[in-house]
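Sequence in, structure out.
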Amino acid sequence: MWDLAPSDPRTVGPYRTRAVLGEGGMGRVLLACDATGGLVAVKLVRDTFAAYDDTFRQRLRREAVAARRIHSSRTARVVDADADAGIPWLAYEFHHGPTLHRALTTTGTLPPDTVLHLAAGLATALHDIHTAHFIHRDLSTANVLLTDTGPVVIDFGIARPTRPTTGTPDQTQPVTVTRTGTVIGNPGFMSPEQAMGLPDLTPASDIFSLGTLLATAATGRNPFQGTTSEHTRYNVITATADLTHLPTPLRHLIEPCLTPDPHQRPDAQTLLTTITTPPPTTPPWPQAIHTLTRQQHTELLRYTQPEPTTVLPGPHDLDPTKIFTTHATQATETEPVAGPAPSPAEAPGTPGTPGRKSRTVLHVLAAMVALAVAVTAAVFWPNGDDGEATPEKPVEAAADTDAFPVTIEHDYGETVVRSRPQRVAAYGWGAAEAAIALGTFPVGITEDDSASGQGMLPWVAQAYEDEGLGTPVLFSKTGTASWTLPAEQIAATAPDLILAPYAGLTEEQYEQLSAIAPVVARSEGASLEPWEGVVTTTARALGVPAAGEELLAESDARLAELGEQHGLKGLSFAAVVNDPPENGVHVYSDASPVVRVLEGLGLRLADSVVELDADDNGMVYTLDYEDLDQLESDVVVLYATTPETAELDLADEELNALPAFAAGRTAQLFGTDEFASVSSPTVLSIRWPGGMPVLAASLEKAEAAN
């Protein structure tokens, strides 16, 4: 919960807004009061989305219909809605309590008895949802509230009605959710059929999501967790759930839910009968969760008690054409850069110009953002669910003012950065790390849902901590597909430059972001550059091109030195991921960043790998176990995301067909963060002690087995 932004409405329909409760892919959720003082949670569709595409209004209408038709004590009730308003909105009854996501990240895993109580409440919710002929499609830890009376399911934004079919049990009634191949939902909590984008889903899809959610609550880790969202989705489709650490008393309940075949999963009523112990009258949440609820009550009092009226400056006091820095103690005006008058496509108050004209509605958003920057010159915008602030320390860059203006060419034209950026937002892979390594700490970065920490990979979190900065705004992907653009959340950080050199933005997304601030987008061929292109482009945009060259040289030297320390020069290798039982082994090609960092250590890709034919994405080859004998190499590098999987790999007799594996010349690197540090390497991740140094030591040990 955090303060309203200047751009947030103070009234929505008959409700007076008080604070921000959270953000999602489709909109922003505000705390509001009705005329009697009753609390509601008002969900607003992002104005940029509503203006572009009427499907967002249609989705809100469907959400209101779904929530109103479902009568359950375990789901949130819609009390009002207006899908035709300028900014469409919907009001839910307000429930006190943290989300399950926040509870798990703040207090840790839940004990088995608590998980059983959670399961009883959520199975009741699903039974009522399915009885009303709907499926939820987005049951995740972010969409469950832990209230004093039990769990409550929220957010019916992508719920769909089932089609009643004569003679067909409720559990298998299909619902056409969208066109084939389109995937909507949270990748980590999808069912296999939903993750594949199949058009017909059944209530059994929700049951699979429930099983994943309960396993996550009991173990603290998603059983399909991968190194990226796409990797996680791939695991949901192809892998068996990792239930290694699932407590025995919960297996009989959770394992059937995670059956790949939807026809073999139990329905919600069956689950309720499986939970033999009736749930207690008072929910057995751990004390730490009750503490979170009390903290929320305290926050509610602060936001709902009347406050003195504050008179803001009038229009004559504001000049939205000037930029303000974000020092905590003062707001220093930056002199306007001499040059031609800005074009109509230029967002006032930003130091650069996007290379294309944006639509009229985007100019309105740009003006609003410029005004927000002027009003909040010395304030960092608050973060998401946990209410932490963005870094209190000012962004410092060693940019030479003579380096500007800078013109950056990219896939959608060119962007002119006219003066030194003061508030940088980084969107997509690698951009934040490149900026940090160059001395600029973004005020907002993309949340990494593969990280073991709270939304940030350890080397990123450590960099902010070492600099003495608070947590940046994390552009959340919770509750939405990972490719949903968090445009309004990015706008709320009031950036004067958006770095997205590797984000793979669509042209429409680029135009949306360009209305907020100049955008440095992706250039053709960037996918073949593990970090070089991102660093070079970021350094130019920040006005420090020489520092970028030095950083790349230092990174190459660091890898080479590490390889020399462990005597790795000239060793031939094959880098693989084992994917049993029927998917064989994935072998990384010379186009993969995994191979790039190994070559940086002085190793060379084995000729037997070079001769293979890559899969469609060009990054990997897939071999059946009977073909592994052709992979001759000095060493084999075996990657896994968990220690348990790594142990299973070493015991897998199928891998004995690999000559190096059979000879004991195997190097291993395992763990979510560890694998992320080398599979998607950046100039920060290769410095992390838990990644490259560990791998190099393992390679040395493998070579010694020769």
